[in-house]
Amino acid sequence: MVQILEGYVCLYWGDSGKGKLVDEAVERAQQQSDRKRTVVVRFQGGPNAGHSMYVRNSKGILVPFITHAAPSGLVSRADIAVGPQVAFDPEKFLNELNEVRDLFDYDGRIMVSERAGVLMDYHRQLDAWQESLRTNKIGTTLSGMGPFYMDNARRDTRITFADYVSDKFHEKLASVLDLKQLELSAAGISPIDYFDELIALHKPIRKELKPFAERLEYRMQEYLEKGNHIIIEGAQGTGLDVDMGTIDDVTSSHLLMSEGLASLGLPRKAFKIVGVEKIYPTRVGNGPMPTLDRGLEEMGENAGEYGATTKRRRREGWPDLVFVRRSAFLNDCDRIALTRADCLQDIEVKVCTAYLVNETFTEEVPFYLKDAKSIYNEETFKWHLWDGPRDISDPKLVDDELKSKRAAYIEQGFESLPTGLKDFVKFHNIFVGVPIDRVSIGPARGETVQTNYH
Ligand code: IMP
Ligand code: MG
């Protein structure tokens, strides 16, 4: 029996298909019939994230499901845990929990670090206010991330999950609203009845969530020592890290995998870290992406490239291996999982292998990424997987013929893939220096081809 200890982190700007891969990892763990538990842990960010998945309800029907506040393991019936650096939205979390309770009898264990901060209504309002004041808009998801992490750093205006579920909540909230008074009134948040409204809103939620408060670092040790499976789920992507991303167009949390391991108290050496790379990068919101190409819009439209949280149209670019190589070493990736290879079929794929910055060629990601002009490798790559639609992001619309074509590749393995795609993978392995261990060719669970590096 193998204990599955894996972390998934996106190498670009999010929306890479982590949800699907985490779901497959959970399935692998659960198929071991070793009577061990499986936990999926989120370690940063908040409901700015959106993990889109398809799940079977209790009648066996495939339905779309998006988690924002809860780890995606919820829909795989795994145990779930929320780490101390997460911006925890209790209302959304409870709604998502109730949704899966309705869909099927979810009865996994739920753990929320007592250290996680609680995202409040005023964080969202302050986010909108701050964004409205910006000349150079970040294009945030307006879910309150900036103001939330400002409160974390400020300390006395942070409401932890421990505070939230304790009988100190009223006192704490009053003191926080008092300390934030100037800011709230500047943002136009009316103090009349605001305290009472928040208290009333949260009273039933607090009661329901109280049993989930945990000293999470100890629980994680127990999972580890008992041989249980632990899957760490990143959110957003390395390009959006508050310190290592494309400043200022980043989110407000630390999202490198080392941060996840550290905040959960888990040992790096025990874990396999998988960088998740959608074969073409996308960005939603502002900020540079050197390989952006409007010519990819049609492909993106076919692939359903709309933000899961904000429904905004994402922007697409060519594979950027300069960016990926940096993200891979920043996260200390052991393997890379390539996703959405089906979406690029029949397109002459260009690969960025250098940048031109101020008339100098470089293979390093410069701090001012907007100054970088992408330089493409001479050799391009093209492959044809099947006739018909390139990608159908809604697996319900995929007909049996396409399903069977996907299934054949999966069964016959990597060698059966078209030469152009295999050549891309080989080129990528050499350039990036971290082997690709799987290639996803469809959105549904299991539509992933293993390479020889598994
Ligand atoms: P914030 O995290 O809402 O503050 O947004 C900051 C930037 O990160 C914006 O460009 C957002 O579009 C982007 N962003 C935040 N969360 C996600 C995500 O889950 N996927 C992709 N982009 C995201
Ligand atoms: Mg997403």
How would you describe the oligomerization state of the chains in this entry? single chain
Q: What is the straight-line distance between the termini?
A: 17 Å
Q: Which ranges are low-confidence, i.e. pLDDT below 50, for 5 or more consecutive residues? A: none
Fraction of residues in helices? 25-40%
Secondary structural class: alpha/beta
Q: Which ligands does the model contain, each kind named once?
A: inosinic acid, magnesium ion
Strands, total number: 19
Q: Biggest sheet, in brief?
A: 10 strands, mixed
Q: What is the CATH C-level name of the largest domain?
A: Alpha Beta
Over all CA atoms, what is the radius of gyration? 22 Å
Mean pLDDT over the full residue set: 94
Write down the overall geometry: globular
CATH homologous superfamily annotation of the largest domain = Adenylosuccinate Synthetase, subunit A, domain 3
Q: In CATH terms, what is the architecture of the largest domain?
A: Alpha-Beta Complex
Strand order of the largest sheet: 9-7-5-2-10-1-11-14-18-19
Domain count, please report it.
Answer: 2
Strand coverage percent: 15-25%
- Per DSSP, the total helix count is 14
The CATH topology of the largest domain is given as Adenylosuccinate Synthetase, Chain A, domain 3
